[in-house]
Amino acid sequence: MDLKAILMGLAFAAMWSSAFTSARIIVTAAPPLFALSLRFLISGLLAIVIARALGQGFGLTRAQWRATLVFGICQNALYLGLNFVAMQSVEASLAAIIASTMPLMVAFAGWAVLGQRLPALGVAGLAAGVAGVVVIMGARLSGGVDLGGVALCVLGAAALATATLSLRSASSGGNVLMVVGYQMLVGAAALLLPALVLEEPVFEPSWTLFWAFAYTTIVPGVIATLVWFLLVDRIGAVKAATFHFLNPFFGVAIAAAFLGEALGALDVVGVAIIAAGILAVQLSRAQKVPPPAE
């Protein structure tokens, strides 16, 4: 992994984690599904305009179209939609911690459902990740966390894990920024109907809401997604996913700095354990596991 890939990974982790703080600001002053659908519409159109300016074509390969639909629905509509709704009652730091367990979910699904062999380091990483979640949730439950919101965050992380599995076919074949734009538009369309049915389009305008919306539209919305696609294309999904171990740290730190969210000792311990577990799982997935004996 070269220096450029490392810098891209660090930048992605910071931008991805910051989205929870800006989302928390948005949902306190705007209906979450309406706001998110509008964000995807703007981000998607912006990405397409930039892609055309860079000479990228509108056409995608069949694999890219399939992956774009899966990614747009699973990550944008389900993962972010569920998290935006959840963060009306769940703190940004907790939402970021739950979402950061996605690599653990991917590894567990590969082992339990797909029959993929997992080295001892990976098993230890899964156990550590579960232990870290238990530590944090034990502390948060005693403080009266909203269980419904937590459940939505967990379902969102599972949807993100599904989206992650489609990344390789989406990022191969060129036109990466066009792919980013299309999957944003898929998310906007998928969220529009539930927004119309479930929400009233009532906003509380302020400069804080404006800047939070502008930031989440451009930085996590377009730039972070593009960086992630390019990083996966550069070093592969397994190595790129290693940077997810930084997300718990960035997520709680940014929320504490900008929202003043409390950070207890057990939160720090749990975050460290989860991060170590994610790193162990990703390192184990990079190892070559010998096939079973005939």
From TrEMBL:
Keywords: Membrane, Transmembrane, Transmembrane helix. Coiled coil: none annotated. It is found in: Membrane. The keyword tRNA processing does not apply. Pfam families: EamA. InterPro entries: AA-Vitamin_Transporters (IPR050638), EamA_dom (IPR000620), EmrE-like (IPR037185). One of its GO terms (cellular component) is membrane. It is a multi-pass membrane protein. The chain crosses the membrane at residues 33-55, 67-86, 92-114, 121-141, 147-167, 179-197, 209-231, 243-259, 265-283. Its main location: membrane. Belongs to the EamA transporter family. This is Peptide ABC transporter permease. The lineage of its organism: Bacteria, Pseudomonadati, Pseudomonadota, Alphaproteobacteria, Rhodobacterales.
